[in-house]
Amino acid sequence: MGQRDAEATRARILSAALTEFAAHGYSGGRIDRIARDAASNVRMIYAYFGNKSGLFDAALSDAIVRMAEEVPPEPSDLPAWVGELFDFHERRPEVLRICLWAQLERPDAASEPLGTYLAKVESVQQQASPAIGAVDLLVIIYAVAQAWHVAPVGLLAADTHASSTTRRAAAVEAVTRILA
Amino acid sequence: MGQRDAEATRARILSAALTEFAAHGYSGGRIDRIARDAASNVRMIYAYFGNKSGLFDAALSDAIVRMAEEVPPEPSDLPAWVGELFDFHERRPEVLRICLWAQLERPDAASEPLGTYLAKVESVQQQASPAIGAVDLLVIIYAVAQAWHVAPVGLLAADTHASSTTRRAAAVEAVTRILA
DNA sequence: CCTAAGTAAGTATCTATTTACTTATAGGCT
DNA sequence: AGCCTATAAGTAAATAGATACTTACTTAGG
Question: What is the pLDDT, as a whole number, of residue A124?
Answer without folding.
Answer: 77
